[in-house]
Amino acid sequence: MSDYVSTTNACKLCTPLGACLAFRGVEGAVPFLHGSQGCATYMRRYIISHFREPMDIASSALGEKQAIYGGGPNLKQGIANVVKKYDPKIIGVATTCLTETIGDDVPHILHELGREWGGEKPLPLLVNVSTPSYQGSHVEGFNATIKAIVDQLALETGSEIPGRVNILPGLLSPEDIRHLNEISRDFGFHATILPDYSETLDGPAKAAYETLPEGGARLGEIKEMCRAAMTIEFGRSLIGGDFAGSVIGKRSGNKTIGIGTPVGLRENDAFFGALEKTSGLKTPRPYLLDRGRLIDAYVDGHKYLFGKRAVIYGEEDLVIALASFLAETGIVPVLCATGIKSPSFKNSIESVTEGLAAERPLALDGVDFHQIKETAEKLSPDILIGNSKGYKMAREWKIPLIRVGFPVHDRFGGQRLLHVGYRGALRLYDEITNALLETKQESSSVGYGYL
Ligand code: SF4
Q: Which residue among 103, 220, 260, 337 has its CA within the 20 to 30 Å range from the CA of 394?
């Protein structure tokens, strides 16, 4: 494997795609790619197919000439066109491989544009982020964008706003974001969730098409994020790193708590524990009941799941969270794989499964589907858990694939998959158990109708 140099079916997506998703979670924002037209077309197609919502992404549409002489004039003209067409509150400018390679100085070009602006409408807020795709993945692009938004907009400091908390959830589903909002509300908090695409990427049907969908994290609240009582940043890979949470922490005096993405019992206990500590309140009864039901399900379903072998792949923090959850259930996460290069991945997998997994999970980072398949095949998995891209393996091996995360292109409702909270864990638990039962039932020579 060490001399393998090309990538076959990458287990990660393009870096500015993550930026576009993050910008979509801000009120009145238009994501804008500084690069050639094809990048925006590919990303729009990819995102629409998962969320089944319109997704406009503007582009500076560079051609051969700009690739040689620089894309500054196109970027300025493109922004002027977006202002005319959308009248947005904010334009999120992300770079692409091309503009990173030619070395366009985007912050400088935007600064110049601010000085020269003579448009009929005022120039909206401009946030820029550097997202060269040859350096990272969609997750790095997503995290860099959240950091850029906080760094460039959350400038207000001062007295604490009572009842205000920030949640930096990472790349979760719109359904997850709605549930996080509900949980925070039930603790008496007003949460600024960044990004919040719970409505912009999963909104109701409307009689007339909206060029800019309603919803998104409110700009006024983003500006005030450093005045919140606490910031919770999900994702074990981000703990102690230089991300949005640390920007807020440094500006506001270290009120950021980094925890794992709350999937399963223990990671949710940490999340609810943080809310209890900050609010001074006990977890509301509906969530205690959810927690109790989850434990009850663990007991009832143990005989079906114990010792089953799972392969998990996808975004680093979701894979770590799922490994933690599966280990609690008695399933052995025999292979945990991510396309992202991460020196801490192996340690994180070890730490969340320690003392629980009957077999030490193999953790691979920076791998593609070719390598995942080659390794997984030897481990005789019973089940795959990840995005749609693992379907070919599941089909070949005749084992179930539980679709989680992003993208889900071969099923309906990917945007409404609930992963977080005790309730999300219970939903996942039922789906996994039933998928294994169904496989057993379907392959039985006698057939049975009672378990
Ligand atoms: S050229 Fe780069 S930025 Fe554009 S779609 Fe391809 S990987 Fe993404």
A: 260
